[in-house]
């Protein structure tokens, strides 16, 4: 997890997405060039890795610092992405994340005072 302001966070996300996509494509091309059969056998592995890191599965990331729940979703979100963002928001509310953050910050203020 990384906590940043909006601009830096957006740049970091775009950089990570582009870099990982480029690396996967480069590896895929090289493996296919050297051994097409190996590339075919690795396809399920690559798909499993992609599925674990697919932003559509998570929907979005919570925007902290607001009095409520606000999810930031990817600009190319589809219906499944938004559905999962809503479900993630529900979990955040049920887990009382905002209340826990407020309590911890309050405890830190008391220690600092």
Helix percentage: over 70%
Low-confidence stretches: none
In total, how many beta strands? 2
Shape: elongated
Give the overall average pLDDT. 89
Strand content range:
under 5%
Quaternary state of the chains: single chain
Q: What's the helix count?
A: 5
Q: Using only CA atoms, what is the Rg?
A: 19 Å
Structural class: mainly alpha
N→C terminal distance: 29 Å
User: What can be said about the biggest beta sheet?
Assistant: 2 strands, antiparallel
Describe the model.
This protein has helices spanning 6-34, 36-52, 55-58, 79-94, 97-112, and strands spanning 61-62, 71-72. It is mainly alpha-helical and 113 residues long. The mean pLDDT is 89. Helix 1 runs antiparallel to helix 2 (36-52). A two-stranded antiparallel sheet has the order 1-2. Strand 1 (61-62) and strand 2 (71-72) form a beta hairpin. It has five helices and two strands, in the order αααββαα.
Topology:
Blueprint: H1 6-34, H2 36-52, H3 55-58, E1 61-62, E2 71-72, H4 79-94, H5 97-112
Antiparallel strand pairs: 1-2
Helix pairs in contact: 1-2
